[in-house]
C-alpha cells in the first residue's frame, strides 16, 4: 500500500488502453496487484488536480497520497454508471485538496485569533491602566528602565498598535522571543508604575 506517488514518471494516459473499470472491480475485492495498476494510472492525474488547488508541492504530495489511500479503501463504492474511474478519482482528489486548503485557512485564522486574544489580554492587564491612570512623564521614565529590546517591543506594540507577529517581523526576531520580551517588559512597567492588577 505504500506506493510513492510517481510525480516525475508516468502520465495520466499511460493506461488508457486498459479497462480501469475492471481493474477497479478487482481492487474492490482487495487485489493489490490491480491496485498497483490503478495507482500507476491515476496518481499523476490525482497529483495534478491537487497541486492546482493546494499550490504547495510537499502538501500536494501528502494529499495525493491520502487520495490514493481513499481510492483503495472506497473502491467498493465506485459505481460505473455514475462516471469513469478517472472522474471518480478526480472528484475525490478535488474534495481532499479543497479540504486541505480550508483546513490550513482555519488554522491560520485560529492562530491569528489566539494572537489577538493574547495581545488584548496583556494590554487589558497593564497598558490600559497605564494609559488612563498615569502621567506620560512617569511612563517615559519607566520605559527608560526597560532593556533596549523590551522598550522596542513594547513601543511598537503599545504606541504603533502592532501585533506580536508584526513586532517580531519588524525586529527580525522569533515570535516566542517577542512574546517573552513583551511579557517581561510589561511586568517591569507595571512594577515601575505601581499598577495593581
From TrEMBL:
Residues 38-105 form the RNA polymerase sigma-70 region domain. Keywords: Sigma factor, Transcription, Transcription regulation. The keyword Transcription applies. Signal peptide: none annotated. It comes from the Bacteria. SUPFAM superfamilies: Sigma2 domain of RNA polymerase sigma factors (SSF88946), Sigma3 and sigma4 domains of RNA polymerase sigma factors (SSF88659). Coiled coil: none annotated. Residues 137-189 form the RNA polymerase sigma factor 70 region 4 type domain. InterPro entries: RNA_pol_sigma-70-like (IPR039425), RNA_pol_sigma-70_dom (IPR014284), RNA_pol_sigma70_r2 (IPR007627), RNA_pol_sigma70_r4_t2 (IPR013249), RNA_pol_sigma_r2 (IPR013325), RNA_pol_sigma_r3/r4-like (IPR013324), WH-like_DNA-bd_sf (IPR036388). The keyword Repeat does not apply. Gene3D superfamilies: 1.10.1740.10, Winged helix-like DNA-binding domain superfamily/Winged helix DNA-binding domain. Belongs to the sigma-70 factor family. ECF subfamily. This is ECF RNA polymerase sigma factor SigK. It comes from Streptomyces amakusaensis.
Amino acid at each position: 500500500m505504500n506506493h510513492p506517488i510517481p510525480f516525475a514518471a508516468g502520465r495520466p494516459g499511460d493506461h488508457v488502453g486498459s479497462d480501469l473499470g475492471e481493474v477497479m472491480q478487482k481492487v474492490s475485492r482487495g487485489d493489490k496487484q490491480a491496485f498497483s495498476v490503478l495507482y500507476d494510472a491515476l496518481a499523476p492525474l490525482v497529483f495534478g488536480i491537487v497541486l492546482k488547488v493546494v499550490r504547495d508541492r510537499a502538501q500536494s504530495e501528502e494529499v495525493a497520497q491520502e487520495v490514493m489511500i481513499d481510492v483503495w479503501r472506497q473502491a467498493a463504492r465506485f459505481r460505473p454508471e455514475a462516471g469513469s474511474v478517472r472522474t471518480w478519482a478526480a472528484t475525490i482528489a478535488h474534495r481532499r485538496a479543497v479540504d486541505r486548503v480550508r483546513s490550513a485557512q482555519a488554522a491560520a485564522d485560529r492562530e491569528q485569533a489566539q494572537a489577538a486574544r493574547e495581545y488584548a489580554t496583556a494590554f487589558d492587564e497593564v497598558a490600559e491602566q497605564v494609559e488612563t491612570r498615569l502621567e506620560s512623564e512617569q511612563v517615559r521614565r519607566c520605559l527608560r528602565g526597560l532593556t533596549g529590546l523590551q522598550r522596542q517591543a513594547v513601543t511598537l506594540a503599545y504606541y504603533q498598535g502592532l501585533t506580536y507577529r508584526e513586532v517580531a517581523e519588524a525586529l527580525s526576531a522569533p515570535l516566542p522571543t517577542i512574546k517573552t520580551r513583551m511579557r517581561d517588559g510589561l511586568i517591569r512597567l507595571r512594577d515601575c508604575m505601581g499598577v495593581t492588577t
